[in-house]
Write a structure and sequence with these properties.
Helix content: over 70%
Distance between the termini: 15 Å
Order of helices and strands: HHHHHHHHHHHH
Strand content: under 5%
Shape: globular
Number of domains: 1
Number of helices: 12
Radius of gyration: 18 Å
Number of strands: 0
Largest sheet: none
Length: about 220
Amino acid sequence: MRESLKGICLLLLLVCGVVLQALGLLDFSGMHAWIQAHAQHWWAAVIFLLLMTGMYALALPASPLMLLAGVMYSPLPATSGIVLGGTAGSIAAYYIAGRLSADMTRRYMESPRFKIIQRHTGFTMLSALRLFPGFPHSVINYSAGILKIDIKVFILSAVSGFVVKGFVYSSAVYHSTHVDSAADGITLRALWPLFLLSLLLAGGMIIHRRYSSDAE
């Protein structure tokens, strides 16, 4: 439930950002210009990839980096960076899971979310779980490593999940930070990623509740 609330807060913040920027009540242009100016350097992309890889490998929340990618780059380059960093970090976490202490392994295995993955180790379910803002990537990565899920299936599901989620997140932020006025800001171009994000969030909450109740 706590992760779902985080997803709702994220969605509300993005919606507020679009509206406030469009109405001229909030101006992100200065900060946006500064970030984009530094993003043009080759080392900015390298730092971004290393940070994202490290955060996923160590089970740290990397959603803020997905949002930052949408500020730094347009949706397609941003999505590419998210896919590369997210997949690399997930693979690292998969192998780190094999070296966890017995106590940490037991704690993961007692989690209702672990039981969801234990019952659904196929490509489709793993990909779907990655899409939903309320389901932690760290649980997917470490659980997959503990369960020794086929690495090819794991990698393909990670790539597919990050492609969709990365594009939605980066598009939502990119269009939110490129709103110039109320006349052209509050349009489908700016809001469609937010609508899609809300659908992913709602779907994640439904699936999480359904399978959590089954696992208990």
